[in-house]
Amino acid sequence: MSDLSNKVILTVAPTGNVPTREMTPYVPITPQEIAAEAYACWQEGAAVVHIHTRDKNGAPTSDVEVNREVMAELDKYPDCDIIRQVSTGGRAGKSYTERGQMMCLSPDMSSLATGSSNFPAKCNFNDPETVSYLASEMLKYNVKPEIEVFDTAMIWNAIRLAEKGEVKTPLHFNFVLGVVGSQPATVESLMYNYQSLPKGCTWGVTIIGKNHVQLSTIAMALGGHVRVGIEDNIFYSKGVLATNIALLRRMKNIALAMGKEPATPAEARQILSLPTKA
Ligand code: ZN
Hints:
By secondary structure, the chain is of the alpha/beta class. The protein has helices at 31-43, 64-75, 96-99, 128-140, 153-163, 187-195, 212-221, 244-257, 265-271; strands at residues 7-8, 10-12, 48-51, 53-54, 60-61, 83-86, 109-113, 117-118, 123-124, 144-149, 172-177, 202-207, 225-228, 235-237, 240-241, 261-262. Helix content is 33%, strand content 20%.
């Protein structure tokens, strides 16, 4: 096995649930656009694509058929082995069965928020029953959860789920900092999350807002991985709209300047204990 200690897994989150064409022309919406963006980002060093799907009107949806279409579009790039991570986020479905319906496609990974918190104007609803259901679907279809930590209780909840055998270990955490209504994007907040991690896990960050470059850099220095993309930041800098490629390229260059290297999808699979792609 090669030395993976200086590898950074760069995840791109190109779409999300919130950005619209009115907000930014650079957000990919259709399955074709999402796959093309994932391919371009893979060429630029992304090892994981975090996928959100939209309906014909551009509204968030968990529809299994739209997810299937995205996978089929990704299949049109046979050289691209980017790790496919779907979302079970609460904005795209009313019930937990609706939110977990794409697990039957057996994506490599899926987001799993292990508790409730707030978004700016609504609840990020993940009660124990919802979390257990989504976790059980992931177990059933051999999908690795990425534990989305919007608030620190979600770390402890994930550890409890692992103790009960509802999620497999090693756990992979993603600290989401800077969502209005949840934990803030500050150094203190990042450090508390980092110091609360169980042994043997892997982790990364998703930083929203003006501190995203600095805090992502600190996370890399601590050995963490980083997610970038229009889902999390529609602005590259003050008043300048971002493209997914530009956000990714900047983070890659910072990683390189720190003596780190972007992990290939194959390396990321090793780091995340994912099965090797046939
Ligand atoms: Zn997401």
